[in-house]
Amino acid sequence: MGSPNSEELSAAEEAMRLRRRLSELEKQLLGSGAAPSEAGAGDSAEGTWMRVPNASKDNDIEGKIALLGHALDIAAEGFTISDATKPDNPLIYINEGFERLTGYSRSDVLGKNCRFLQGPSKDDAARAEIRSAIADERTCVVELLNYRKDGTPFWNRLSLTPVRDAEGRIRHFIGVQSDITDHVHAEERLKKMAHDLREANAHLTHNMNAAAKVQRAMLPEPHIRVPGADFAWRYQPCEGLAGDLLNVFRLDEDHVGFYVLDVSGHGTAAALLAVAVNRLM
After folding, report:
1. What backbone torsions phi and psi does residue 256 show, to the nearest 5 degrees?
2. pLDDT tens digit sequence for 57-100
């Protein structure tokens, strides 16, 4: 393994400065009267550490910081810290989750702006929101298409949060990257299914309306008058299209013909069959 370059050393120094700042904040929260405790055990980015009795509060804080580093590294999400005091917000820290998610190592990305993940993507709205949030020094959450080191695309839900110092000045931005590719693809499939269902429903509705119009046209006109007899009918739409049909017609001056046609089955085919049979009769 080669020796670290000046850019990597600068990033490491900045990370250590952040740890010291966190240590100072921890001391303020603990107060001067807090009793010392034992550090945790686990693996950190710097190596392996063990549970041992602490001789001072500082050791307790260092143990908590090591635990925090370990927790960040085993997290599924990618965590990044950029230096807002330097031009173009270069990265000074990434966790192992970021490496697993993107395929980029620390040596690949430290000292660079995180926009290299965007690749050839043309998601101007998401990019504009990120630039606006940085300029306005505010938090933002966007979903955008990113690319891994091997060129594989993935959908990234990026949460960007500014970190201020004691004077209220923005010193860093913390980024959290979550792979939501499966979620986005599931939404796309649902949208396509909804579109296909709307298309099928529109097609079915059109066919049913056309067949119903034909059936209404085949109803007889109430113009036959027979002493001692009344003929009446009413068309009433139903949920399913059927093949039922009726007709009344005069055979001669003394006789009237009447029939009801019941075609087995429902739907457009049954209705069209009823119309065809009615024509033959």
Report:
1. -125, 135
2. 556 656 666 666 666 776 778 999 999 999 999 999 999 899 99
Residue 32 sits at the vertex; the CA angle it makes with 29 and 36, to the nearest 5 degrees, is 90
> Which residue is it, tokens 């904040």?
25
Give the residue from 112, 91, 103, 107 showing the smallest Cα distance to 5.
107
CA distance 112 to 128: 19
pLDDT digits (tens, 9 = 90+) for 159-185: 999 999 888 899 999 999 999 999 999
CB-CB contact of 259 with 281 (8 Å): yes
Which tens digits make up the pLDDT trace of 18-60? 556 555 555 544 444 443 334 444 444 333 333 444 445 556 6
**C-alpha span between 191 and 127 (Å, rounded):** 25
- Residue pair 104/149 in contact by the 8 Å Cβ criterion: yes
Strand partners, 257: 249
Task: Pick the closest to residue 60 from 30, 105, 104, 101 (CA basis).
Answer: 30
CA distance 163 to 22: 12
